[in-house]
Specification:
CATH superfamily: Jelly Rolls
Radius of gyration: 17 Å
Shape: globular
Largest sheet: 7 strands, antiparallel
Strand order of the largest sheet: 1-2-3-11-8-13-6
Number of helices: 4
Order of helices and strands: HEEEEEHEEEEEEEEEEHH
CATH topology: Jelly Rolls
CATH class: Mainly Beta
Mean pLDDT: 88
Structural class: mainly beta
Length: 209
């Protein structure tokens, strides 16, 4: 048992060390910029009535007003049968780097973004957001950042919207437990692919370039 709901409540209160440094309000979406430049948690603004509610989850105009890429060319879904499943940390290299808009449509995930941009003031820093199907919140991942998540419940499903087509020859990754980043995960990793488990240390890759 992760006891992740208790952990998430502490996380949202700032106990995790990750923090929101800028908050921009739009209608009907709310944009919260994290400490990583260009990385946003986005929340919907439900309009309830006796039937349930209606909420917008995407608006090209609102994204452009917040200087975020509004181009979307592909959507993907991942289903994860077991909690404790880790995917990542992935990114797509130049000349086709991609932004991602990530949402958990079933279950819950601990969603992590690592800043891999050498010219960024937060280079090698990370931020995490708990995404749940109940909250319907989203994470906007900018170009040049690694992305991954740990599932917090069984049978968790994640929806991705991407700004570029998938190019397998440009698929890259960094390891979830790389000492360069010191990511704090909320529970045990019980399932991970061989590829994700064996990415080399980030500093070794940088030195080899």
């Amino acid at each position: 048992m992760f006891g992740w709901r208790v952990w998430a409540a502490k996380f949202r209160s700032g106990a995790s060390g990750s923090r929101l440094v800028h908050k921009i309000h739009g209608q009907p979406l709310t944009f919260h910029e994290t400490k990583l430049p260009g990385a946003f948690e986005i929340r919907v603004e439900p309009k309830p009535d006796e039937r349930g509610f209606f909420a917008r989850t995407w608006c090209q105009k609102e994204f452009e007003e917040h200087a975020l890429k509004s181009k979307l060319v592909q959507c993907s879904v991942s289903f994860n049968a077991r909690k404790g499943t880790l995917r990542g940390l992935h990114y797509q290299a130049a000349p086709y780097p991609e932004t991602k808009l990530v949402r958990c449509t079933r279950g819950a995930i601990y969603d992590v973004v690592v800043d891999l941009r050498p010219d960024s003031p937060t280079f090698k820093d990370w931020i995490a957001v708990v995404l749940t199907a109940i909250d319907r919140n989203m994470f906007y991942v900018p170009e040049g950042c690694g992305h991954g998540f740990l599932t917090l419940e069984d049978e968790t499903e994640v929806l991705y919207q991407m700004s570029e087509f998938y190019h397998p020859e440009l698929s890259r990754g960094v390891r979830w437990d790389d000492p360069s980043f010191q990511i704090v995960w909320p529970g045990e990793v019980t399932l991970i692919s061989e590829r994700d488990r064996t990415y080399p240390n980030f500093e070794q890759v940088r030195c080899a370039c």
